[in-house]
Specification:
By secondary structure, this protein is α+β, with helices and mostly antiparallel strands. The protein has one domain: 2-Layer Sandwich (Heat Shock Protein 90), CATH 3.30.565.10. It has three helices and five strands, in the order βααββαββ. Strands 1-2-3-5-4 form a five-stranded antiparallel sheet, covered by helices on one side. A hairpin with a 4-residue loop joins strand 4 and strand 5. It starts with a strand and ends with a strand.
Amino acid sequence: MDVTIYSLEGVRSAVSQLLHATEHCCTLTEEKKYYIRLLLNETINNAFCHSGQSCAMLDWTIRNGVLIFSVEDRGRGFDRRDVPKPTLESGSGRGLTIVESIADRVVYEKGGRKILVEMTL
């Protein structure tokens, strides 16, 4: 399913839609719901905060018990290797590190304008 999000306020609605759809096909623990919310919030917020654009596209599907979603923006993109590793003092890179530690698979596409995330439900 595709959803275009036009504001940070729209993130909550998109997350709710995805969770609702996911619960129709899978039984989710509270922990899984928390992780799904966290992954979506981090990836969508990054798209808004770092792209300088006014919308982000969320696409998702569930295949064989795996949630697959992507978040894409129309910004200039980035190279993941150029994002410094987070430290206690730094304010950047934590979101990507969190996403990469929770998800089963993370792929950066389209020059960093799109992130693909997979998580076993």
